[in-house]
């Protein structure tokens, strides 16, 4: 204990001392060490000799420093714990010089110290130096220590390479080794190799435990191999290894991500039968899955069940439900859940507030959003960048630019730095008001403050410039974006195409459109892009070209909308000789979509025809109605009606 304190004082105060001059009587022991400690504290900073060196020099003379005693281990443990690796190396060097015996336990302590300091390569190096320098033979214990450090540092490839080389040199793996290897393989997506390692365990006399099974199940679930993961559940029980809540949570999470809530619920029942009580993670996973499927009522019911089972909902639980309600356009209901959350003594975090504020603004409840903002401030919750950005974006959408600018200024004054989304919202607000110059000033301010613009920022800038007829400036922004290596998204492409078409440069717009088709999925044209091209071609009386492009659009799986129908109806009636009412054109379009099982798209076209008093053919109408009225869909619609009547 005395040495422990002494080493800690050395680390904290960087003590240096002159060599001790007290008695060197052979009977002197730890009593003399107390005098030594006192002497050291009094003579602080008076010598350049490190404390560890002084300990080695003085303690043997006092009869306290014997080979292999607890004093030596205590020094190693403390230096490793404090991260003082320089002093630790000096201790090792002096031990080697004095030919002291090294134990594997000492090296494991030092390796763990490197792991704690996030220095995994130092731990690997020390493992190899054990034999080469210090003549201490490593066992599977020190091997597992280093392997665990590498896995914890997410250096999975390095861990597997280290494992392979050490096994080749004669290290015999045990259960912990296999668990770490399976985890590393699953983390880098090599689930097949993880299964091979799992099956190879018996050859080394190891039986997988619940951790092995759970890790492998998690890897399989993330690869979408849910059925194989569930089959492992049966296998582990046959082998006498009983699942724990973590095992079930892994499988439930996999099923929820897949959207298979029915099987997830059955698994919870199975969990209860096995004597495993659902945990917070179980309920949160199920609630998240239900929210993803849009089944908010069931999610709320599950929340009540969670409380009744004496499992306390946490911030994740409430946040998941509130976020789900906001995504369904039910921000008001989300605000009620927030009130319930606060009534139960739970304080929402900034992300819950940001989701609600954003949702309330989008649904037109700006007053409620501002009340929530005020309530958040009064509760003592300090808004971060995400909350400020949601508020500023909402105010810009609501046309309240002055308030948005005031909050932006207040945000900066409080030291909360805006991000790319914040600047994009302000720019969009100014562009929508026709204040192009102010929007460009925001862009310059963003670059001045060191916030790098992303694809969304460029899209807002390009769209705003094109909307305000500044195609030349938009092209400069486009070149700047490409020069910075930022890939344009569908919005940026569509905006540039529209800018060219509005300027009568339809062929230039088509070149951009064809370039867009060659890009990845994030930049593929949607129905908005197609409508821009259709409109531009039809203005130049190139209707046949527009129809060819419409056929290509259908082949690419993109369905026309009401705008598409109106563009062709208008131009077929005005620019075709003789004029056409468009009935046959739309009827054929609806039939083609119906034959391709694209029922929603076909029904939208039928809806447009009926609104325009263009009666579709009886056969077309019958086919579309039959597709819409499948038994399951009708049953679901009837159930929904009954629910609304009696709930």
What this model shows, in words?
Helix 6 packs parallel to helix 8 and helix 10 packs parallel to helix 12 (about 210-220). This protein has a domain at about 1-100. The radius of gyration is 35 Å and the shape is globular. It starts with a helix and ends with a helix. The longest helix is centred in the last third of the chain and has 16 residues, at about 630-645. It has helices at about 1-15, 30-40, 50-60, 70-80, 85-95, 105-115, 120-130, 140-150, 155-170, 175-185, 190-200, 210-220, 225-240, 245-260, 260-275, 280-290, 295-310, 315-325, 330-345, 350-360, 365-380, 385-395, 400-415, 420-430, 435-450, 455-465, 470-485, 490-500, 505-515, 525-540, 545-555, 560-575, 585-595, 600-610, 620-630, 630-645. It is an all-alpha fold. Residues about 10-50 and about 60-70 have low confidence and may be disordered.
Short description:
The protein has helices at residues 2-13, 30-42, 51-62, 70-82, 85-97, 104-116, 120-132, 140-152, 156-168, 175-187, 191-199, 210-222, 226-238, 245-258, 261-273, 280-292, 296-308, 315-327, 331-343, 350-362, 366-378, 385-397, 401-413, 420-432, 436-448, 455-467, 471-483, 490-502, 506-517, 527-539, 543-555, 562-574, 583-595, 599-611, 618-628, 631-646. With 647 residues, it is mostly helical. Mean pLDDT is 83; it is low at 12-50 and 61-68.
